[in-house]
Each structure stands twice: as structure tokens, then as C-alpha cells.
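Predicting holo structure, pyridoxal-5'-phosphate bound.
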Amino acid sequence: MTTSFHPPQRTLMGPGPSDVHPRILEAMGRPTIGHLDPLFVGMMDEMKSLLQYAFRTENELTMPVSAPGSAGMETCFVNLVEPGDKVIVCQNGVFGGRMKENVERCGGTAIMVEDTWGRAVSEGKLEDALKANPDARVVAFVHAETSTGAISDAKTLVEIAHNHDCLTIVDAVTSLGGSEIQVDGWNIDAIYSGTQKCLSCTPGLSPVSFSEAALEKVRSRPTKVQSWFLDLNLVMGYWGSGAKRAYHHTAPINALYGLHEALVMLEDEGLENAWKRHNHHHNALKAGLESMGLNFIVPESERLPQLNAVSIPEGVDDAAVRSTLLTDYNLEIGAGLGPMAGKVWRIGLMGHACRKENVLKCLSALDDVLGRVDAPISRGKALAAAQSTYSD
Ligand code: PLP
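Done. C-alpha cells:
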């Protein structure tokens, strides 16, 4: 007879999902009510203003898509890209490649601006691509590249795109709640994120926000959005301002309780404090990793605090180390993705996982496990190095 599934309590320090706060799990276990119940609708209104706070926007259409980050990505592309549209996609890691896929599946042409993986998106290359393609309609880029741990200057990239009359699509799956984002201040047109990273929530929802300029493009497009489920013209009837909350799809009610709780917690902590916390623990982790002799693949000024990618030392078996961390320490760190597979480890410090006890646990576990396989590292220094940043 099959029995219930009881997963162990892991420490999630990979690229996401990250540790979910117990308060959020508790919220998700509350009684399910109807998704058109007046009390639920009241919760949706609060959720919208909490998301506006997290994104730093007054955008009316700010809401969670009922599916993971990839669906937020698709929501932006299917609505803003029409057949024949030219879209400039800046790629500096795996997720820019997915943007290209999206453009092509919408019948658009993707003009790829390739950057070195592990570096920020180059503003100069974007400018050149826009000059060479004056008929481009949209610019898309990833703010926080989870595959490499690089953060790009979203404000400047959006400014350049607007100077060339392009709308902007920004991937903030790994940055929301962990690094500064100013949707209104930076004039971002369409942005999507995920709940499983710096928001400390479970995977499966994708907060998005659209500017008035983006919505104007959606309203005025002559062709129907090819996805019924993600068509913002229809979704607005459920989440839009003054909407009668007519049935569009059955909302993932308990998952939304979780996100509501996560956003209440973010508001309690304060957005700027959350950004600072991610930096603070990143500095400690960095001090520990570097004292062991592990090297970051991203230059310091372009580094994402919540995703720490380091080169795997020579001769070390990537999979064996991660598996020992999991079995002996219940600790998950991330493997390299795409061309980085086998070359890097990605150590996440996201949301609830971004705390001192996790930093110290990870460093001491790595010190032990790498020592056991005679990896070429300096042993016994990491904890003191991290602790010294905490006492500074
Ligand atoms: N974009 C980035 C930068 C990501 O890191 C991820 C997931 O890790 C996604 C998009 C896709 O999100 P999801 O896996 O929730 O569909």
C-alpha cells in the first residue's frame, strides 16, 4: 500500500526553490474558500497593493499569474509580441535563451545581443543593436541571471530601449525582494517574477506588472493573443481595477494565501531592509568561500548577492559533493546550468534561506565534504572569515 509522502526538512541553498518560511506554509493550510467569495476578493485587493509595494509601482495591472515564473515570462511575450515584430533579446545566461524561444513562438524575430556568461548585459551592445534595428518594437533582458549570478543595470537598459521607442520586458524572477527594483522609477513596461526565490514562498505563482504603455499595446493589437489563458485582455476582467471579478480560471486559492503572507512579511521587514539583508549575508558567505580558495565567476561589481556562483575546484566530482551535502547535511546547493554544468556550484541566499545560520552551515558543510575528497582548498578558515564580517 502506498503511504503519504513526508519529505525531509532540507536547507535549500540552490538557485530556487529556497527555504519557505513556516508562517507561509501555515497560511497555505488555512481553509479553502471560493475564489469569488467576497473575503477572498478582499484578499486579492490587498495582494495587489502588496505586490505594487514589492515592485515599487502604481501600475494598476499588478498581479500574480497562476503558474510559475515561466508563465509570467510567457504572459509578457504573448501579449507584447505580435507576428512579425522584431524584439531585441539580450542574453548573458540560460534565461535569455528562453526569451528567444518565446519571441519565435509568438511569430516574432529575435535579434540576439550576446554577452559573456557571468557578466552583466552590455549597455553599449544594446545601443548598437537598436541603432542597427530601428524597426525593433521591444527590448527584453534578464535583470538577475540565475544561471550565472550576474545582475544587470536595469535602469540604464530600459532608458536606452525607450530612447529607441521600444517597450521593455524585464525578468525579475531572482531579483524581486532580494535586489533593488523600481518599476515606476525605472519606467519598466512589463516585468515578471517568481514566488520561490527571494519572496520565501512556494513555487507556482508569477507576480507580474504592466505599465499603461504596455497595456495600450495589448489593447490595440489587431491580432488576438495566441494564448487564451494568458491573454491580459481577459485576465483584466478578474484582476483589473473595477473588474467585476468574473470567472476566468479557478485561482490557486491556498497558494495565494501563501503569497499574501509572504508579502505581508516583506512589508513588515521593509523592502530596503530585505535588500540589505541579502547583501549582508552574501558578504559573509563570500568571505568564507574566498577564504577556502573558491573563486566567484562574476566580477564583484556585477555580482548578485542572492546567487553565488563559484568554480568547482580542479579534480572534484561535482555530483558526488552535492549528493554528500544532501545526504549528510540535508543541504541543497545548485549545479551549473547549461554550459556551466559540471563547472560551477550555485549557492543561493534567497528569502528565508538568506540568514546567518544557513551561511555558517553551508560553509562548515563544504569545508568538511571538500576536505573528505582532498579538494585543493584551505580548510578550517571559512567560519572565522564569515563570522568576522558579522562582527564588523
Ligand atoms: N527566469 C529566471 C531568471 C529564473 O531563474 C527562472 C527559474 O529559475 C525562470 C525564469 C523560470 O521560472 P520557473 O522555474 O518558476 O518557471
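The CA atoms of residues 32 and 254 lie 6 Å apart.
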